[in-house]
Amino acid sequence: MTLTEKFFVECVKKGIKSQVVEQIPQELEYKKFHKLCTSHSMSVVVYKALEKVRTQLNKDFLAILEAYVRRHVALDVQSEYDKEKFLSALEEKGLKYMPLKGYYLKKLYPSTDMRYASDFDVLIDAKELNKVRELSNNLGLKVMKYDEHHDVFYNPQTKTIFELHKILFVGRLQKYFGVGFERAHLREGTKAFYELNKEDFYISILAHSAYHFAEDAGVGIRHLTDVYLYKNAYKLDYEYLDRELQKCGLKKFKDKFELMADYLFDDAKVDDETLTLVEHVIESSVLANKKMQGASEVASNMEEGGAKNAKRKTLWKTLFPPKSHMQFTYPVLKKAGFLLPFFYPIRWVHVLFTRPKNIKKIKGISEVDKDSLSQMKKIRSTLGLDEF
Questions:
Q1: Which of 52, 56, 235, 379 has the fewest CB atoms within 10 Å distance of its CB?
Q2: Host domain of residue 370
């Protein structure tokens, strides 16, 4: 890591522990430092860690950072109000719901604004989808998009985004979690609020990070702060965790991810392999390493046939998803499977007009070079993500 990256990590480490840094390196690259803060969604955490030395900062940088933090703090207050209003409406109507990720994780930070996110994730029962859509409309929310996995609404006044998940995970992780409610229990004193136990929620956090690491070739440091704060906040049953993580193929990922977090925030000793992973995370943003996304996807299909065959296989899967995926997207195929060939062109048109980033994705796959492919193959193997 560079000096600027090391200082960024130090600020994050101090910030999540309610501590402050004592001095600023003279050689700090402010432009790079600002990019790290914003791309990893750590501006508020870093700002609070700099409390003692703010007067020593470059004035232009400090002004930009303060404006960014003020905006995020204000948005956090408003989004918290919007979220509780939405959940209260679901509860009142008795519509099944399960808040995800940030709803719990932000409460583990010294202040909730340290983990501000522009969207709020909640799992709903797909059988009640029309009722949830009606409720959202009555609350004045506007539709951003409907797709096979989410309904996405937003508050036009406050800009709070609501991601209503119809399923917790797709692909391999779906086999373990099911829709998502199967492992959940009704919270005591409520009629519709479902939640996972502490261990299963931790598995879902790790699964979320693993999914993004495999899908997007990387995750930012916030995924590691989440894991670090959660595992230190609760006394978890690791015998149960390891057994369940083995079932869903995430035991190796958990071990490496926890080790990376312990290295960054507790100065644990690690090997060169782990240091390489840490550097990859620092080079990523909060949810992706865009330079390596295509390489990661091709690496997931890398077999004895080599890079060319892996690229062809990846492009084929992108254009022709498996039958199970198509049935989830188009439920009519569950009863009329013979229509599958006719629904692929329908999907292509849908993707073309609603998910233009998938077009870039196809281009990225075709441009993957040998070195990037080799790097991502090694990273995925180290994390136990070969089959994701």
A1: 235
A2: 294-382
